[in-house]
Amino acid sequence: MIEPVTVRKAESADYARITQLLREAALPLEGLAGHENFLVLSRDGRVVGCAAIERYGEYGLLRSVALEPNERRHGFGRRLVQETLQQARRDALSELVLFTTTAAPFFERLGFRTISREEVPAPVRASVEFQSACPATAAVLHCVL
After folding, report:
1. 3-class secondary structure per residue, the chain
2. pTM of the full structure
3. Per-residue pLDDT tens for 62-84?
């Protein structure tokens, strides 16, 4: 039986675990400012997933979406991204952009659509992810909020 999970804003004590999850998922750590823009998925008080939004004016960069491998395929990734989208709406963002080398189909199922790098809003182009952390071959997706 899978125990219930909760999604909450990350706290400073979660940052080491977030970093571990990102390393295990081979996601970039460059440009992470800390825990203040993260949501975490926890089970029994243990962080098992994370996602972050970097704000660039009215735009957001969805990044660092990671789950423990044994937590995948249970709908938790979907729940985490949906909660992140709700947070972006509460923060009055107009659009979220993301870069991925492996998960484009997952994000497409959640309403994201592929765009070209040239279509990335100018403020988001200043991000470390756009500039250097993500390869030029990464898929670029966006979701208008």
Report:
1. CCCCEEEEECCHHHHHHHHHHHHHCCCCCCCCCCCCCEEEEEECCEEEEEEEEEEECCEEEEEEEEECHHHCCCCHHHHHHHHHHHHHHHCCCCEEEEEECCCHHHHHHCCCEEECHHHCCHHHHCCHHHHHHCCCCCEEEEEEC
2. 0.91
3. 999 999 988 888 888 999 999 99
Place of tokens 């909760």: 6
Domains detected in the chain: 5-144 (3.40.630.30)
Report the alpha-carbon distance of residue 39 to residue 65 in Å, rounded: 9
